[in-house]
Amino acid sequence: MSSGEFRGVAIPAPLVSTERMRYRQLWILALALALAGCSDDGGSGGDGGSGGDGSGACPQIAGTYTITAHCVAAQVGTEVSVKQSGCTLTQFDPWSGWSGTISAGGGMTWSGDAGGTPMTCSGSYSQGVITGSCTPSCDVTLTMK
């Protein structure tokens, strides 16, 4: 079969090359869109930090914080050590079993057991301050030392 034939039907040569070109263009466009969705932001991090996973996707917030606001007044002044691996918050010492996530924009979720009461929190990180609201009812603020 020659380039101008399709199962015995003659197709003018310009249509064959036009169809092939259009097909290639669609594949190139699809590939470019797929690659654009996978690119990072150049490692800037959502807040000037860089992600621990090398992608630059999440702010680096690991460090020692002081609780500056809490629904249980006795917790104010407590030091909390936050550990992080990429976008995962792996530890909130001194509370074992607490963990969470942080997004590129600084949005956070974390959860754990508070003396027999399971708690789920959501909040944000900005310029060394974590603010959050936990269920059941507790608002918290942690400030980096």
Explain what you see.
- This protein has 145 residues and is α+β, with helices and mostly antiparallel strands.
- It folds into two domains: 5-38; 63-144, Beta Barrel (Lipocalin).
- 18% of the residues lie in helices and 41% in strands.
- It has one helix at residues 13-38; strands at 5-6, 9-10, 63-69, 79-85, 88-93, 99-102, 107-114, 117-126, 129-135, 138-144.
- The strands form two sheets. It has an eight-stranded antiparallel barrel with strand order 3-4-5-6-7-8-9-10.
- A hairpin with a 5-residue loop joins strand 5 (88-93) and strand 6 (99-102).
- The longest helix is centred in the first third of the chain and has 26 residues, at 13-38.
- The protein is elongated, with a radius of gyration of 26 Å.
Rg, alpha carbons: 26 Å
Q: Order of strands side by side in the largest beta sheet?
A: 3-4-5-6-7-8-9-10
Structural class, by secondary structure, is alpha+beta
Strand content: 35-45%
CATH topology of the largest domain: Lipocalin
| Average pLDDT taken over every residue | 76
Give the total of domains: 2
CATH class of the largest domain: Mainly Beta
- Tell me roughly what share of residues is in helical segments: 10-25%
Helix segment count? 1
Query: Biggest β-sheet, characterized?
Result: 8 strands, antiparallel, barrel
Second CATH tier, the architecture of the largest domain: Beta Barrel
Shape: elongated
Number of strands: 10
